[in-house]
Amino acid sequence: MEWSLWEISLAVAAGLLVGFSKTGLPAAGLLIVPIMALLFPAKLSVGVLLPMLILGDTLAIGYYRHYADRGELMRLAPWTLVGILAGAFFLSQADNAAMEKTIGALVLLALAFEGLRAVFPRISTDHRLFPWIFGGGAGATSTMGNAAGPIVSLYLLSRSLSKEAFLGTTVWFFLVVNCLKVPLFVHSGIITSGGLIFSAALIPMILLGGWLGVTVLSRISQTFFNRLILILSAVVGLQLLIGH
Questions:
Q1: Residues of the chain under the 70 pLDDT cut
Q2: How far is CA 181 from the centre of its chain?
Q3: Does the keyword Protein biosynthesis belong to this entry (predicted)?
Q4: CA-based diameter of the chain, in Å?
Q5: In terms of Cα–Cα distance, which of 59, 56, 58, 9 is closest to 35?
Q6: CA nearest neighbour of 184 among 45, 56, 87, 41
Q7: Please, are residues 138 and 83 in contact by the beta-carbon 8 Å criterion?
């Protein structure tokens, strides 16, 4: 397969964004989803992206492994597993268009909740219902399209974590979730030898993106950090819903 300069540029951007999203701005990772769908068929792109994400998670663990909030991870864990299984079933049944629209709708619903939380600050995610909703939604959307970033981000933002704790918890969450998805994706045939070769070729870009993420994170404020996450989540959620 011959790649055009435009396709090579998209691939490089995807690699940089993987590293950057894992160490600096998690919501930026959602921009990878439509990029990969331009390079590969939608379902196959999910499998091609997964090894890249696992590498990015492993890289980020080196920076933020001591900052994770274990309590929040345990609150999300059981319902995330349920969501992964539900997402795997949906992925096996739905076509590409249905999958994209479903993910976009879930992202926008999560953003709507965050808007309500801003208007009504007494709304709390302490109730046991919220880990069910966010954990299950994150597991399902991660499996269907590697697009759970906004859901996890919105939940953790509501927990008032520092930037470092936010990233540490996010990284551990996705490393475990992504590793759990591997056997499901292999079984469904969307992880292929060609996809693994593509992922390996982008390792230098992922490493560079990881370094850029750490550099940028130390230079931005908490408020700007949170707002940028919300804006990027809204943009990509709309993009997925209306189609790219």
A1: 1, 27, 30, 103, 106-107, 110, 113-114, 116-127, 217-218, 222, 226, 229, 236, 243-244
A2: 13
A3: no
A4: 56
A5: 9
A6: 87
A7: yes
HSE (side-chain half, CA atoms, 13 Å) at 130: 17
Q: Give the tokens for residue 113.
A: 């909740």
Identify whether the C-beta of residue 10 lies closer than 8 Å to the C-beta of residue 202: no
CA distance 71 to 206: 29
CA distance 28 to 15: 12
Cβ(207)–Cβ(108) below 8 Å: no
DSSP letters, 54-112, are HHHHHHHHHHHTT---HHHHHHHHHHHHHHHHHHHHHHHH--HHHHHHHHHHHHHHHHH
Residue 224 has a CB neighbour count (10 Å cut-off) of 10
Q: Which residue has the tokens 């700007």?
A: 224
Tracing tokens 């990509």 back to the chain, one arrives at 236
Measured CA to CA, the distance from residue 193 to residue 170 in angstroms comes to 28
Q: How many residues does the chain have?
A: 244
Specify the amino acid at residue 227.
R
The tens digit of pLDDT for each residue in 128-160 reads 778 888 899 899 989 988 888 878 888 888 888
Question: CB within 8 A of 162, min separation 6: which ones?
Answer: 67, 222
Q: Residue 34's pLDDT is what?
A: 80
Q: One-letter amino acid identity for 57?
A: D
Q: Side chain identity at 188, as an amino acid letter?
A: S
Q: What sign does the CA torsion over 162, 164, 170, 173 have? A: negative
pTM of the full predicted structure?
0.82
